[in-house]
Amino acid sequence: MPFVLAAGAVPPFLVEVVAIVAAAALVAYVSQRVGLVPIVGFLLAGVLIGPSGLGVVTDPELIDAAAEVGVLLLLFTIGIEFSLDKLQKIQRLIFVGGGLQVGLTTLLVAGLCLAFGVGWRPAIFTGFLVALSSTAIVTKLLGDRGETNTEVGQGAVGLLIFQDLAVILMVLLVPALGGEGVTGLDLGIALGTAAAIIVFVLVVARRILPPLLEHVARRCSPELFLLTVIAICFGTAYAVGLAGVSISLGAFLAGLVVSQSRFSEHALSEILPLQILFSATFFVSVGLLLDLGFLVNNLGLVLGALAVVALVKLATTFVAVRAVGRAAPAAAATALWLAQVGEFSFVLERSGREVGLAPLGSDAIGGPLFIAATVISMALTPVAAPYAGRMAAGLRRMTSDATPEPTEAEAVEAAGHFSDLENHTIVAGYGDAARKLVHVLEGSGVPFAVVTLSPEGAREAEESGLRVLRGDYAKRHILEAVGLQRAKMLVVPDDNPAMTHRVVSVARALSPTTRIVASVPSLHDAEELVEAGADRAIATEFEAVVGLFDDVLRRYQVAPAEILRHEETLRRGSYEAFDADVMDTPAVRCELAADCFSTRTVTIRTGARAAGQSLAALQLDERLLHVTQVSRDGDVTREPGGGFVLRAGDEVLFGGTPQALIDAGDLFRVTDGRTPALPAPPPMPTQRADWIDTSAPVHLDPDPDAGCTHLDHVHDVTPGTQGCEECLERGDRWVHLRVCLECGHVGCCDSSPNKHATKHYHRTGHPVVRSIEPGETWGWCYEDEVML
Fold first, then answer.
1. Domain ranges of the chain
2. Regarding the domain with residue range 690-787, which homologous superfamily does it belong to in the CATH classification?
3. For 591-604, what is each residue's pLDDT tens digit?
4. What residues does the RCK C-terminal domain cover (predicted)?
């Protein structure tokens, strides 16, 4: 029969659970108030309530189990954020760099131990313990700081992955170091089995998991989806663990597999609350291990051991990362991230104890010393992490990075390779934003060159066939070499404010006529950049606001031309409307139509009751609703009749009271259990007559006071195609259409995925377009950035 507690009785484990959770919550609050990194607080909480502190927790087995769950969930979420594609890009770092780091650390520590009279078996064992870093702490901190996908973050995660793999071999070698017989055949079979199971999990999971998650998500059950995600995490970890592989590595592999699904973000949001809870438990459990009495009595010895461990790991990690071609600053920062001893070392230490092995060959001193140094190194990691970037910056200034920057003479020679470029675009840097920009430039035919100081970025760009100059793009001779004075534009797409400011200042002094556009995080940075000489500084926080108010105003029936005019007014004003000193003045003034408050746009989704039904069949009159218009595939049908049949993907403008719309919600709710996702775009119409009339000329009456200096390019034109010319050729879709008033080219707007109207302007220099959407007669000049 089930275990039942008597009234008033408290289960023994509940005291420890309450102590852990309460201590973690209290510490998190205090840490937030005093600006302390929570991980350090959790470690201190473990020391406080542990056996050497208040003694609230004396049996840590339950806590160990919860901590293991925390590590699994943490590595699972890191895997989701990392993705297999990113893993493949750093495979050389994983296997070559990771192998060097583990091997060099083990040999160096073993050598030091031998020099102090430790036997060779415990010396190698101690090297194993020190070689491992904390996957849980490093990945947690990288995620919190948003640095997982940076060069340093990927380098650290890559080495940690190899360390997790190395644990397999270390666990297999520990019995041999303890004197037990382990043959080479045993090692080979174990390693082969581990590799086979990892490959099996990845192959099978990539084929099975995406359709499984798709099916589960369509049930629209949060409970079912969460349980499925947890089952994937723990099930994969268990399967990998059967081969003797670290179950934490199994959880990471599960996250990588889920990252390939389009539901990866959904999975991450569902699992995150559990991951936070159990991860806190892990860090508290580490604090439980520290013996305060030993620490106080042997403080000098502990600090000395800590210093040796840090110096050894800094040196070996730096050498390993440099050996795979990473820049010295990145290698130094990665080394600082991995300077601690990791949680898997505790597991390895327990395995060694079972066969008579102890750190430094002494169970009385070596064991407590190892635990004390490890816990303190973990506690110092969150404190030291913010200095990784500063150390890298200082080293970069001293060494001018790992890539030898061209001298002025070399830059002059390199200039010959770019002498054929005129009216080109210079892309400064090769980060994530620059890669996306370059992809667009390649497709649009705009001539461009990339300047970057990153060895990996330069190598990647060169392998893609791009024209690349390696060097610091904030240096005058580098910009001269890439032809800045002949260039039409200089673009600095990756928003590092300090670096961007230097580039803009140097470039503006060198070339007063080149247009300079740069991206920065905030409005304050944008203002400083314009003062430094940028023609346009794009503040990412502002553009997000623009996107939001664009959608809001459209829902309230503000004309698209008026919205566009407001956006351009704000941009031309360098975002002054959002300055704190003028926030009491409305940034935008719109005259809203009276009926905009009684209308609402609803998208018909796949599986909704309204999909496939005629308006008459929906009996909208009885629901006190009427349809004003329906937008479908770019066409607008105004006041459709009762025979009009709705289909998935239609945007329907309803008129009616808010309560009437609420009551009609059952018509638009997905009823077959599937997730309410938008359907895939339907195929392009086979009858092009459904689109633009190519026999009717397009005319524009421009406002002579608009400030456009290119009115001589405005002509009556006949559209060349019945839709976006490039989209029709490729079978793509568009949102709105624009016609070039110089040649009649029809292209899609900037709200469309391909932005072919703008690309046509960049390719041909034809500056003026006109909207050919129903009811719209406005034009736009790309050169002067004014509405006509």
1. 60-396, 408-520, 594-681, 690-787
2. Zinc/RING finger domain, C3HC4 (zinc finger) (3.30.40.10)
3. 445 455 567 777 78
4. 587-670
